[in-house]
UniProtKB/TrEMBL annotation:
Residues 1-20 form the signal peptide. This is DUF4124 domain-containing protein. Residues 34-94 are annotated as: Disordered. Residues 61-71, 78-94 have a biased composition (Basic and acidic residues). It comes from Chitinivorax tropicus. InterPro entries: DUF4124. The keyword Signal applies. The lineage of its organism: Bacteria, Pseudomonadati, Pseudomonadota, Betaproteobacteria, Chitinivorax.
Length: 200
């Protein structure tokens, strides 16, 4: 009987507060439940407050909303991942008919990168030769206690910048070779799986 009376009082309390507008329910640090038409201060709550409608039913629970939103984002992310995987799988099956073809494409890509690196290294050698000649000019001028012309200084700086650009390019292309090999290995392994699945 006491439980029924307590429940009735609680319902009446919630209903009376709810009739005034938005109602908030929260639990303080001592585990006590509170109801109010004003949201609590952050330091007064153990959990985020829930918003109730006029009938005392929870209509907005921040913690539940956050969990639902995170679950929705996770599901969308997984759906996007699967969609992208299907796209890649279709591209593999349209591009290759057997794993050996992946190796051929890899080798052609590596040959192209190696050719670019070789050309860059030849260009660097030419720049080195120019710098060597200009260094001799500078040494000759200094030996005669003559000033170094500004245009000569500018040319030297330009060649030094060019050498750095070539070195950076070669370094980048060497990294590209690693990426090509890794992608080729992954594509080949996936293609074998897909072809095996088709046979089964």
């Amino acid at each position: 009987m006491r439980k029924l009376i307590s429940a009735g009082i609680l319902f009446a309390l919630v209903a009376s507060v709810a009739s005034a507008g938005n109602t908030y329910k929260w639990v303080d640090e001592n585990g006590k439940v509170h109801y109010s038409d004003q949201p609590p201060l952050p330091q007064d709550t153990k959990s985020k407050p829930a918003e109730l409608n006029r009938g005392g039913v929870v209509v907005r629970n921040p913690e539940r909303q956050k969990a639902e939103q995170e679950a929705k984002v996770s599901q969308q992310s997984e759906e996007q991942r699967l969609k992208e995987q299907r796209r890649r799988d279709n591209a593999l099956l349209k591009t290759y008919t057997k794993p050996e073809e992946v190796d051929l494409v890899r080798d052609r890509a590596l040959e192209g990168i190696d050719a670019e690196i070789k050309a860059s290294q030849l260009g660097r050698k030419a720049v080195e030769e120019r710098l060597s000649k200009k260094a001799k000019q500078v040494a000759n001028l200094k030996g005669r206690n003559k000033p170094i012309p500004q245009d000569l200084q500018d040319d030297i700086q330009h060649d030094q910048d060019e050498m750095k650009r070539i070195d950076d390019l070669v370094k980048t292309r060497e990294q590209d070779k690693i990426v090509v090999r890794q992608k080729s290995e992954a594509d080949k392994a996936r293609l074998i799986e897909l072809l095996s699945g088709k046979k089964n």
